[in-house]
Amino acid sequence: MSRDFKVAIRGIQEYFEEAGKVLADADQGIDPAQPVERVYFHDLKTFLRYMTPKRFELIERLHNSEALSIRALAKMLGRHYKNVFEDVKMLEQVGLLERTGDGLYIVPWDEINTTIKLAA
After folding, report:
1. Nearest residue to 113 via CA among 16, 38, 59
2. Under 8 Å between Cβ of 103 and 68
3. What are the E-state strand segments in 61-108?
4. Tens digits of per-residue pLDDT, 51-105?
5. Which of 21, 49, 75, 105 is deepest in the core (most CB within 10 A)?
6. Is 97:105 a contact under the CB 8 Å cutoff?
């Protein structure tokens, strides 16, 4: 089963509208066609603080690799362990990376969809 991850920039009102629709569908016994895990940022500035070019490269390279330790990932990226450690922990916190049972890290998503609304 493929897993998708949705990243969006949405205000709190839009978040609650979407959550209300999902709950209303669930009350009627309607399940989503495919579960989508998501994270929302309230503005572009916050999103860009989390998704730096180096973090995006980390996600991309890890996705195309097997599960890796932070040390192995740092070596593959040619970056200092401390910086990669901080990036991995940040990305894990927002749900873009996952830690396996043996302590390695993976990007389990087949696709990450990002929506940036330019105007209200």
Report:
1. 38
2. no
3. 98-99, 105-106
4. 899 999 999 999 999 999 999 999 999 999 999 999 999 999 888 899 999 999 9
5. 105
6. yes
Paired tokens of 39: 């994270």
CB 42 within 8 A of CB 10: yes
What is the Cα–Cα distance from 61 to 66, expressed in whole angstroms? 10
In the three-class reduction of DSSP (H, G, I as helix; E, B as strand; rest coil), residue 63 is classed as: helix
The answer to whether the CB of 107 falls within 8 A of the CB of 59 is yes
Domain assignment of residue 54, yes or no: yes
Look at the chain and report how many structural domains it folds into. Answer: 1
Q: Which domain holds residue 57?
A: 4-115
Tokens of 27: 């009350």
Give the end-to-end CA distance of the chain in Å, rounded to a whole number. 35
One-letter amino acid of 63: H
